[in-house]
Amino acid sequence: MFKRLPPTRAHGHVDENRVNRAESLANTPSISGSVPRLFSRFSTPVQPVGQRGTPPHTYKLHTVDRGHTTATPAQETHTGPTTLEHHRDTRKGRIEALRRIVFADHYKRDSPMNGMSLQREQDGGGGTVTKQREVPRFRCGTYVLTAEFDDGDEFYREKALKELRETPDVVQQALKDIRAMVKGEPDFNLPDDDEFFYKFLRPCKWHPKSAFELIKRFYKFRLNNPRYCDSLLPSSETKLLSSEILIPLPDRTAQGCRILLINAGKKWNPKVISLDEIFRAIMLSLDAAMAEPKTQIAGVHVILNMDGFSLSQVTYFTPSFAAMITEWVQRCLPCRLKGIHIVNQPFIFNMVFAIFKPFLMEKTRKRIHFHGTDRKSLTSYLGTKPLPTSFGGELVMPNEPLGDGLCDYFCCFEKDFEASNQWGYAKIAKR
């Protein structure tokens, strides 16, 4: 049952309740290592966390070695009062306090795992060096979500070569060419970072001119649509992120694709959460997913679960909204969108699709699949392993609520989203 959430806040507003909850955190030894940055190769320290209260469900944070996972012995949790008054005077301090609430309601460090993921970087002299960094994961019962920042195994290397033309010579030349193009674009502020350009070059199969045009469209959309793009931070979208309308599934398809589940039916109350907020959270989630090299190579599938969708919800969809979101998906999104799967849709959903249909390109139409309640149809595209049992898959979703934990998982990367938001066209050069 959808739980009624607080009234809508203005975008950019920091959730004061989450900051205040940090007051009750206990003093415990900090987790060894660091939380990886989503948009940079540098890492951000993890704040100490502790155990609070006696909640009805449990969230856990571990670090995991993508190559060879090694569990360390269980550690005792020491609790005690703590205050964060020195953090509360500025917005930056509030964000720091927010980031310390790693998972809502309860934190239990019963079997932490410290590991590293390998990541390739340029050494400045044309060569490649390999660095290691620790990766967090979110666990709630049988649900285990890991942000994967490694380059993947031979499967992904073969896929990148076969589907994206990704060879050392092609990569080196594309990076050189796109840097030259960026320098010639006025009022354009971008990081001089290989990882940043990978995000746009891979969806364009390493064609630098196409990637440069994608970068321009991506940032012009952000510049021209402040309603959806300003202050695009986890702390600004806590209401949506904790509502379980949007859930990234933890396992990939056999082809290596990420899966994003959007529950746009009975879990969505338009009087509490607007369409704008759903779209902003989708942008936030795909931004995070596209920081993963594996996702850049393999792409993303989106599942729209329309179970419980009603006539009253239809009225919130307008042609202008449909035009905007299709422009973003088809022309501005730096992502290999492999499929949009609509499940459990009632007949009245045809009214919504009729609004979107005039704006869809032929390529996009071919990637939209209507499955209804036909689970075999859905699993024929995505397989059974990554899908929840309710969709005909093998993934047993926990009975405990996921929302607060997922929200706080995103909030761990607040500074990285802040850093990402600074890039693009100068606002005085709106075009």
From TrEMBL:
Signal sequence annotation: none
One GO MF term: phosphatidylinositol bisphosphate binding
Domain CRAL-TRIO: 234-399
Segments of skewed composition (Polar residues): 70-82
Name of the protein: Clavesin-1
Organism: Dufourea novaeangliae (Sweat bee)
Composition bias, Basic and acidic residues: 12-21
Superkingdom of this protein's organism: Eukaryota
InterPro entries associated with the record: CRAL-TRIO_dom, CRAL-TRIO_dom_sf, CRAL/TRIO_N_dom, CRAL/TRIO_N_dom_sf
PROSITE patterns for the chain: CRAL_TRIO
Assigned GO CC terms: membrane
CDD domains: SEC14 (cd00170)
Annotated stretches, region: Disordered: 1-37, 70-91, 110-131
